Every structure is written in structure tokens, then in C-alpha cells.
Amino acid sequence: KEKAGEFWKKKGKSILIPWVLCGICTYGLNCILEKNLELFGFVKWIFGYGTWYYYMTVLLMLYVFFSVNSSDIVCLGAIGATILSVVFHQIFGGTKFQYLNVLNWIGFFAVGILMRRYRLDRILRNSHWIQYVCIFIVGIGVSRTIYANEYGYFYVASMLYEVASFPIILKLCRMIASRIKVNHFVFIGQQTLFIYLLHMQVVQAIGTRIPAGLVVDMLYPIIALEIMVFLAWVIIKISSKSRIISLCASYFGLKSN
Fold it and tell me: φ, ψ for residue 109 (rounded to 5)?
């Protein structure tokens, strides 16, 4: 275990600085496109009130919470809290702060802690019957999405569908990675922060230029992801020839190989 000071020093460099710098860039672009500059607009933007940066705020809150106590009991309680919070959302409806409500996300973080602690990814990877069950569960989720038009983070069964999809995605990534020389998925994993912090405006730009529809809605985030991956690859290639550019790139969340 790292000391608290060392842990937060690393997070400040690897998360806080890219968060702020990317937030400035995306907010500035939004102000130019929307021609709207609010007094407290940047504060709301950077903390995720109505923007995708809610994830960063919630992530830091979860780091703080689980740094105090991450026992199995606490993790199980966190999972229960997320289930209850989503049920509450279904009964009483959402609010403007639903994405910033840490209870909606704490269960997923807890699942990740338990999976890492007990090496559950190995069990999931090697157990065929678990994979079949997960495929069945995800199949039900996809069917409900198509026929009942129920999709999003805050449906009662969302947590079940999302957790069940993990073994399937893990298996697919390993199957594909074993058949290609360049490990595309490892690169995406390394550049996740950069991609996340800047991706949404690319998604929106694509979304406004193609017809709406469920299938299209599912495809254009993938297109946006690949655009961001290509952008990351280009910047890393350029930065490999200059220490200054490499340092600047790291401040925006990019990780050179």
C-alpha cells in the first residue's frame, strides 16, 4: 500500500492536471461554438454539472472514500447502495445531479476492487459456464434496449447488464489481441484518460451529421473512439521526437510507450 501523500501526488500528476487542462480546452471550444460564456460556467463544466466530467468528480470522491475503508463488507454495502439508488431513481425520477450522485457509481467501483482483490478476472476468463450465463444476461439487456427502448445508466437492471458484459468484453479482447500483432486494446487502455477527457465533442460532432436511430447511436461512439485513438497515436508519434512535446502531451493524459 502506498502512503497517502505519495498516492495523491501521483493522482495529482496523472489525473488532476489532465482534467483541468482538458477542461479548459473543451470549455473554451464550447464557448466559441455556443457563443456563450457564463460567470461560473467553467466551474460547473469542470466538475461535471451537465458535462461528461462528472466522472472525474465522482472518481476522486470514490478514491477518498475507499482509501479510508475498502473492506469486503464496505464493498458489498456499496454495491447495495448503488442498487437502492438506482431503484430510487426509477421510482422518483432523476435530478440534475443524478450523474454527480456518488451512490449511483460506488457499487461499480466496489465490484472492481473485489475483482482485483480476489483475481476474479481469471475465474471469469477460464469459466465457460459463467461466460454463457453472462452472454444470456447481456442478450436480455440488448433485447430490452431494442424492444422496450430502455437503455442508460439508471435502469434497475443496468448494473447487472454492465457487470455481466465485462467477462464478454474481456474474452473478446483477448481473442482479438491473440490474432493481431498490434495490441489495439492495450493502447486504448493506456490512453483511456486522454480519450475520455476529450472524446465527447467528437461524439457530438459525429452525431449531428448522421441520421438518428438505435443502431447508429450505438455505432458512432465507436467511430469517435477510433478517431480519438488515431489522434492519440499521432500525438505520441510526434512527441517521441521532442521532450517538450512529450511533456506537454503527458499533461493532457497521454502515455508514451
Answer: -60, -40
The whole-angstrom distance between residue 239's C-alpha and the CA centroid of its chain comes to 25
Beta-carbon contacts of 140 under 8 Å, excluding residues fewer than 6 positions away, are 161
Written as nine digits, the cell of 48 is 461535471
The half-sphere exposure of 82 on its side-chain side, counting CA atoms within 13 A, is 25
Residue-level pLDDT, tens digit, the chain, 257 residues: 567 778 888 888 899 999 999 999 999 988 988 877 787 899 999 999 989 999 999 999 999 999 889 999 999 999 999 989 888 887 777 677 889 999 999 998 998 899 889 887 777 667 776 777 777 777 766 666 655 555 667 776 777 777 777 777 777 777 777 776 667 778 888 999 999 999 988 877 776 666 666 566 667 778 888 999 999 999 999 998 888 989 999 999 998 86
Q: Return d(Cα 141, Cα 138) in angstroms, integer.
A: 5
Alpha-carbon span 193 to 252, nearest angstrom? 9
* DSSP string covering 86-129: HHHHHHH---TTTTT-GGGTHHHHHHHHHHHHTTHHHHHHH-HH
| Long-range pairs of 1-6 with CB within 8 A, sequence gap ≥ 24 | 4/67
Q: What is the Cα–Cα distance from 227 to 195, expressed in whole angstroms?
A: 9
* Cα–Cα dist 58/40, whole Å: 20
Half-sphere exposure of 127 toward its Cβ, with a 13 Å CA cutoff?
A: 12
Task: Dig out the grid coordinates for 44 from the structure.
Answer: 460547473
For helices 72-92 and 158-177, the axis angle rounded to 10 degrees is 120
Buried b (16+ CB within 10 A) or exposed e, 126-162: eeeeebeebeebbeebeeebeeeeebeebbeebbbbe
